[in-house]
Amino acid sequence: MALSMTSEMAFECLLVSRDPDVFSIVARVLRDLSISIDVCLRSSQAIGALENGSTDLVVIDWEGEASYALLRSIWKDIKAKKPTVVAISSSDCPLPGAHILLKKPVSLESVAKSFRVAYGRMLLEYRRHARHAVMTPVIAVLEDGREISLTVTDIGDGGVGLCTRSKLIVGDALSFSLNLPGAMREVHVQVRVLWTREYSRAGCEFVRIPPVDLMILHDWLKLKSQVKKTRIAV
Q: Does a structural domain hold residue 154?
């Protein structure tokens, strides 16, 4: 799922725990990482809290079957954006569905170390899914040489969103040059249509971008994908 972010986005965490000591340590580390926190006392309550899809990090103080039910809820929709999951458990046994296992009893040092790893993963996921509005009209060339007018509505690390009155079908390849606001020059891209929707909208993946243009695009996306600065080095 594509995400439309502000220029300085703050990550959001849902902590599932009834342990005040766990809360105290986790909240301190999250504050240092500039991550906002919401708390649910039970896993059953957390399922509803995750429905809006804005949570980037889920920290589960493990409570058996109820926690497994929460993990199943997180992973059941394969198309939805997935949060990074940290499980806090007194057992060394792997917990399928959790990206990071944090052993009890927790300490400030162990939580900080695990959350730095989680932060790196969240940052990669954010940059991979983020889409930035551009609304730029271009002339694109199809494989058969036909030219069509379209508007690039958004752009991200993996592709672009388009709007056009011309008929596109899945698999169509298009080439066009795009002016990114503030970039040193336009970039040339070749894309392939992955899906089409009503109202003349389409989603495309990048197929080929010249190396110099790819560097310009990556620098532009990095500038647009800034997150709130942390208080500690990560």
A: yes
The overall pTM is greater than 0.90: no
Buried b (16+ CB within 10 A) or exposed e, 70-93: bbebbeeeeeeebbbbbbbbeeee
Distances from the Cα of 119 to the Cα of 83, 99, 113, 130, 232, angstroms: 11, 12, 10, 16, 12
CATH classification of the domain holding 151: 2.40.10.220
Q: Please answer whether residues 103 and 90 qualify as being in contact, where contact means their C-beta atoms are separated by less than 8 angstroms.
A: yes
Task: Using the structure block, give the residue that is written with the tokens 């056009």.
Answer: 164
| pLDDT per residue of the chain (234 residues) written in tens, 0 to 9 | 334 444 456 899 999 999 999 999 999 999 999 999 999 998 888 988 887 777 999 999 998 899 999 999 888 865 566 899 999 999 888 888 899 999 999 999 999 999 999 999 998 888 777 788 899 999 999 999 999 999 999 999 889 999 999 999 999 999 999 999 888 899 999 999 999 987 789 999 999 999 999 999 989 988 887 666 676 666
Nearest to 165 by CA among 153, 150, 154: 150
With both helix axes pointing from N to C terminus, report the angle between 20-32 and 108-129 in degrees, rounded to the nearest 10. 50
Q: Quick check: is 163 in a domain?
A: yes
Total domains in the fold of the chain: 2
**Measured CA angle at 220 (ends 216, 226), to 5 deg:** 150
